[in-house]
Amino acid sequence: MAARVLLVRPALPVTAIVSHLPVPGSASSLCPAISRTHPSAELTRLLCSRSSPAAESSCAHGSIGIRTRRTIFSAMSAGPSETQTVSMEEEEERYKVQERIDEHQKAATKLPRVVEARTVVDKITNGILSTISKKLDGSPVPSMVPYAVDEGGRILLCVSSLSPHTGDLDANPKCSMLVARDLNDRSDIVITVTGEAHAVSAENEADAKSAFLKKHPGAFWVDFGDFKMVRIEPKHVRFISGIAKGTAAVSQFSGDEFKAAAVDPISQFAAPIAHHMNRDHSDQTRMIVEHNVGIKVDSAIIEEVDSFGFYVLSQFEGKPLKLRIPFPRKAESRKDVKTLIVEMLSAATAK
């Protein structure tokens, strides 16, 4: 009879979880460092108590077996049902599939991070501005604001004298702007630009307003008397992606590196390319994803396109899964993107 693993919902005691976990034979396959990712010290103690002395000593070193980790995390997020029962074979297959996805995503060609950061900041229209509050004893206070980016990579704001963050910036120009490609997904790209904000000079005000209106054509308030253009000079930029997915990437850039990076030239065509593919060729996109990643997906919708590939939102085993699909080579033009997609589809459908 095949071995079974009982996955219980988080509401049950951790003893219920641990008591149904198989006890591996080596320290490397145990989970002694679980306390670093789960607040329960009891869970750590129970896991270590079921291990060998050698495994117990590895607690201090933070060694953790990925299979055991996945099993425990599955147990702790088992959903509303009382219990789930899966065979060891099923659990092993899930692990292998996830490993295949992780390996593909780590190897998938992407834009250089500083270029991707510059491109994402240029494309998104709203960000979270954090200022040093005058009224709250210097605490940082965030505000959701529309913004634009000038040709030099500096963030442009059109702020009202009535807004608290305007007064904060007048008193202390230090601030940060958080820009997320998807605010509802913390594993997606998140960029934080820190720097100082100062009013745009009279001689540069017309250009600043023009750049802001290009991104926000309905911003009629730019000419109101109580509004002014403010420009954030980047000093430091932090790039984060892949959090909670096993593909985490964190990079830091100087303000000069960020400003010197060029916006990816293909990104300007991302919207029409994605619209066409999603409307007329969604099945073909799905086949390309399945061929490249080596998994079966129910659907795949293109979200972003750049010179080195595209991002899709797929449905995998009934759940949303974002994936990076690289081009066989760098795309040099919009027409070249079409050529590359045709090549990828031909490879996916080849017998």
From TrEMBL:
Pfam families (alphabetical): CREG_beta-barrel, DUF2470
Sequence ranges assigned to domain DUF2470 in this UniProt record: 271-344
Protein name: Uncharacterized protein
InterPro entries in the cross-refs: CREG_beta-barrel, DUF2470, Haem_oxidase_HugZ-like_sf, Split_barrel_FMN-bd
Domain CREG-like beta-barrel: 114-242
Organism: Marchantia polymorpha subsp. ruderalis
A GO CC term assigned to this protein in UniProt: cytoplasm
Gene3D superfamilies (alphabetical): Electron Transport, Fmn-binding Protein, Chain A, PNP-oxidase-like
